[in-house]
Amino acid sequence: MAKIKVMLVEDHNIVREGLKRLMEMEEGIQVIAEAATCREALEQLKPDTDVILLDIKLPDGDGLDLCKEFKKKLPGVRFIALTTYDDALFIKKALESGVHGFIPKYASFDEIKSAINITMRDGHYLYPGLNVEVIMRLNESSLTEYEMQILRMMAGGATQKSIASSLYMSISTLRRRITGICTKLGVDTVEEALATAAKKGLIR
Description:
- This is Stage 0 sporulation protein A homolog.
- The protein is of the alpha/beta class.
- It contains 10 helices and 8 strands.
- 52% of the residues lie in helices and 17% in strands.
- The relative contact order is 0.09.
């Protein structure tokens, strides 16, 4: 079975070295790159990287901004945030920035290993103890009433042209709004947005 190729981005050398040594003892995981800063991370990124274990706060920048740069280069790479922040609002922001997993620095190595494996298999991982319902409610409330109106009109079968006309906006503006709705709901298409909104009870 192919090993999961991991990149470690962590500015504390002792933490990074410790994680690297523990991972090297695992048969299914291989550390192929490491960095201590945003600049080093961009320089050291390998095209075959599967997972990036990423410290959110780095000496020369924000790890969440780094996620966006990485996604441009490797759209399929998975991100697991390694951080001291564990409040729901911060986690929501991390998820919206493209993070697939979230691990606090006080987590055990077994939890970190689980995060890597589960993220590769299922797409997302939230460490035990995180109140998932809080995150779901935050995601729902992030939709504005204007966006909810667009969702309801789409659910009712209205075309983009008729929605744009009703709301006095251009088609291009409406499409940007729809893209924003999809991003907030964590989906890629209008169909997925409608299905997700219906599942959450936001529309009927």
